[in-house]
Structures are given as structure tokens and as C-alpha cells.
Amino acid sequence: MKNFEISVLDLAPVKQGKSINDTFQDSLSLANFAENLNYKRFWLAEHHNMESIASSATSVLIGFIANGTKKIRVGSGGIMLPNHSSFVIAEQFGTLESLFPGRIDLGLGRAPGTDGLTAKALGRNPTTINEQFPRQILELQRYFSVENSNALVRAIPGEGLDIPLYILGSSTDSAWLAAELGLPYAFAGHFAPDQMDMAIKIYREHFEPSKYLDKPYIIACVNGVAAETSEEANFLSTTLFQAFINIIRNDRKPFPQPVEDMDSIWSPMEKTMVLKMLKFSFVGDQSEIAEQLKNFQEKYQVDELMLNSHIYDHQKRLESYEIIRRAIDSLFS
């Protein structure tokens, strides 16, 4: 089994009965905790028009987290690039990298991170996304290059800085693009598991070495809910299940507390849909988590596992990341 790094994906979850300021303070607390446990990076994901997720101003929040930590890499998982001008993103991440040298990642996705009406408010043109996204990545690379110093339009800060780009995907489309551009690839297995096998296969088989990367680098994002006992972990995971029911129902309310009985909340069809979406969710005590992750890694041989954890109680969420850290360490001790 190939050794792998572990990292955190944080959506800045807003919980019922808590404020958005509470959310941001919890995110910072988690970043510090993960840093002390030697997690590699802490990424925040761009979403819009959702009461349950507060990471809409992703670049701003990255600065807040980076300023409150010392060594962990901080970045976007991701910036939804067609929502923005590539020039503005180059300036924003150039500013972040200038403030926190050697610690900033720029993960890039093409999805809107929201509903159709909000996507329209963001100024997206859905008919040009597939053409626009690759072009914007090349624009970013140009703005960050030293060679752009002679151009009429320059990203300052940004120009000449080494800001790693990562291509994010939840289908096979971005796997082809990441392979073609020779960039690292992160797959959103935490909510879209169906095409992960094929996407990873495409990326590995068609990867073209570049000046940025000489061989494929794969990050798999999954859900993790760990506790001291299996019973407690399964209880805590009901927050995650309820959050995905809300997605199915198009109900964007804040994340709920865990419940004893999910069958009183979801219908049989909803249960089937949720469990299908959450195929790559590792739930259990330390030994169970270790076994689940071992089976996953033996199959996929990823370079990095990025863990998202929807747990209502903040202290329990911290403990989950600590138990997962111990579970992974036990696989290689």
C-alpha cells in the first residue's frame, strides 16, 4: 500500500443555533488543530447562496486561516474559476502568497458552487464554461509567470510567484484537462463518487509531464466521521446524512444536530440516494477507520487523502480528525 498525505477540506459549515462568526472561529480552531497533527493542507471551498456554508468569499477566508496558523498550507478546494475574472484571482492569490510565502494553494473548479439562478447572478455563461475554464487556467499561469513582466496587463502581486495550481473535478471532464496540462488532480469523492474510478484512470493514463509536475499527483476527497466507539461515530454521522437529505430536498438550512433515528427523517428513496452519494464516507472507531482507509488506498493508491467532516459538535469534530490521524499512522507503523 502506497503511503499518502492527509489534509482537511473545510466548507465553513454553519450550524443550527450558531452564528457565522462562530463558524469562522471553529474553522480557525480546526486549522490550528490539524496543523498540530501534521495535516498537510487546509482547503476551503467556494459555495454561494447557502445558509449552511459560509465560505463564499473564499480568498478572504483563506487569508484569515493563514494568518492564524504557522506552517500548514492553506488554499482553495476550490475557487470556481468561471465565477471570476482570472486576473482578479491572480491578484488575490498573489496577495495571499506575498503575505504567507510558500503556504498558498490554488485549487480550481468549473462548477458554479450554487444553483442556476445564483450562477446567473455571478455572471456565468453556461454555454461557454467548457471553453472558458481551460483558457482561464492558462491565463492564470501567464499572470503568475516571470515572462508576463513585459505584458500590458500584469498581476501585481502575483507575477513571478510560485503558486501551485490544482484541477478539481467531480466527473471525468477535468481529469482529461488535468492530464493534458500536467497539473495535480483532486477528485470530489465526498459527494460525487460515481465517476472517481474512471476519472483517476483517465488522469493516470493520459498524464503529460509538465514544468509544474513530472508525474501524476492525485488527491481524493472523502468524508470521515470517527469517534472513540463505533456507536458514537454512527450517531455523529447523522448530521452528514441530514445535510445530504437537505441537498436532495433543495433545503439549504444550517447543519443540524445528530439524531438517534434517521428512519424518522428520510424516506427509503432518500436513504438510497444519500448512501449512494456518500459511498466514500469512512465512519467508525479508530480500528474501523484504519481498515476502511486501508481498503480504499489499496484500490486507488492516491497521493493524498483530503477529509471533510460534517460533525455538529466542534470538539467531537476535532477528536474525529485526531482519531483519523492515529488510524492512518497505525497503518504505517
Our measurement of the CA-to-CA distance between the termini, rounded to an integer number of angstroms, reads 13 Å
Secondary structure category: alpha/beta
**N-to-C order of helices and strands:** EHEHEHEHHEHEHEHHHEHEH
Percent strand: 15-25%
How would you describe the shape? globular
CATH C-level of the largest domain = Alpha Beta
Unreliable parts: none
Percent helix, as a range, is 40-55%
Write out the CATH superfamily name of the largest domain: Luciferase-like domain
Strand order of the main beta sheet, please? 1-2-3-4-5-6-7-9
CATH architecture call of the largest domain:
Alpha-Beta Barrel
Number of strands: 9
The major beta sheet can be summarized as:
8 strands, parallel, barrel
Mean pLDDT over the full residue set: 96
- What is the CA-atom radius of gyration, in angstroms? 19 Å
Would you give the CATH topology of the largest domain? TIM Barrel
How many helices does DSSP assign? 12
Count of the separate structural domains: 2
GO cellular component, one term: cytosol
Protein name: Luciferase-like monooxygenase
Domain Luciferase-like: 20-298
Keywords: Oxidoreductase
